[in-house]
Amino acid sequence: MAAARGFTTPFSVRLLKRGDVARENGVELVVLRKKRRVLAAGVKCSCSEIRGASKSVEKFEQNKSRSPAMPFASPQSRFVSKPEKFFSRCTPRNTGPQSRDSPPKRDTGIANEKDWGISLLNDNVSESGTNEDGSTWYRESGEDFGDNGFRCRWTRMRGQSFDGTSEWKETWWEKSDWTGYKELGVEKSGRNAEGDSWWETWREVLHQDEWSNLARIERSAQKQAKSGTENAGWYENWWEKYDAKGWTEKGAHKYGRLNEQSWWEKWGEHYDGRGSVLKWTDKWAETELGTKWGDKWEEKFFAGIGSRQGETWHESPSNERWSRTWGEEHFGNGKVHKYGKSTTGESWDIVVDEETYYEAEPHYGWADVVGDSIQLLSIEPIERPPGVFPNLDFGPPIEEPPESSSSSSSSSSSQ
């Protein structure tokens, strides 16, 4: 049974030539061909944006695209990455890494591995030096080994300005074992002369799903930063999961604060690889005067039949609340039932002739992530001796919950 659930030999995932379904070692790997489907009369499935006819839906679309107008209004220039301070990460041996004293950018999602430029050294080193501007640096690299053929190759770097007002740390790693598990990752933190502090981590993982036996690639990024001059900070957690049959999950949680203003946002997408899709968004904010507002919506579709529903609300400092709820039922025959109401007494309940549009497949899926994960897929595990078999404990290691913005930023400042 163990052999049926896991890899008796190291597995590999590679981008195959275009086709409907490719098989390798008995596992369905890639479903590449995307189709624009006409599901029924008046029902289309496409990647275009959702189109609605009622005024309530149009207003919802406007609200959905609106972001809080308060992320770091005054100190934003310090919280934007400074490209001129970034240097090539593929530095020659005995050349010190340059200053990396810029916080991460907000709302940039999960970077591809090529954007990090991870370049691990092939031997163990421990070196340090001083740059022309007086800043100091230290770099070391090595390997760690564990049970089940586990190996972790890593490089750690850190630096400090000549006067000690700014400092940074950065770690790169790659992990592998005999089950076929592979991981590529980065963690970085620092603070600059203005007192801004930050922490960021990025991971890319290949493993076999315990239940489906399919290869899965997962990517994640966590980022947070805190202003050194006022009560401002933000945190983001992004994740993406893909398997070889088209199952896809994506989502993000975001939080920000500027003095007495704060905002939150959560969203998610789920595609089952067989045409079923679920999407949702929930965001809310509070101003320094105590005004609160929020907007949320959800859609579910399969084979041209599904629903959408949502709510927009507003609450004044005196706790006066206004809200509007709305919904749509799509029957798959060109008929759509639209309904809704608000606290001001408006309401509607109609059936209209309208085409149904939704995304049945992610715009970025399994074939795309395989093509963008060349470095991850090329990680070579240590050789397994004859007669030794891996302990089939599937899945990536359980991650510890992320630290709060305040605690993690404080730790970054003390480093």
From TrEMBL:
Taxonomic lineage of this organism?
Eukaryota, Viridiplantae, Streptophyta, Embryophyta, Tracheophyta
Where in the sequence does UniProt note compositional bias of the Low complexity kind?
404-415
Q: Which UniProt keywords apply?
A: Chloroplast, Plastid, Transit peptide
Assign the protein's first listed, main location to one coarse class: plastid
Write down the superkingdom of origin: Eukaryota
Q: Which GO terms describe its cellular component?
A: chloroplast stroma
> Which family does the UniProt entry place this protein in?
Belongs to the ESV1 family.
Q: Where is the composition biased (Polar residues)?
A: 91-101
- InterPro entries the record matches: Alpha-glucan_binding_chloro
Bias (Basic and acidic residues) ranges: 102-113
Source species: Penstemon smallii
Protein name stated in the entry: Inactive purple acid phosphatase-like protein
Residues of the region (Disordered) are 87-113, 386-415
Question: What does the UniProt entry say about where the protein is found?
Answer: Plastid, Chloroplast stroma
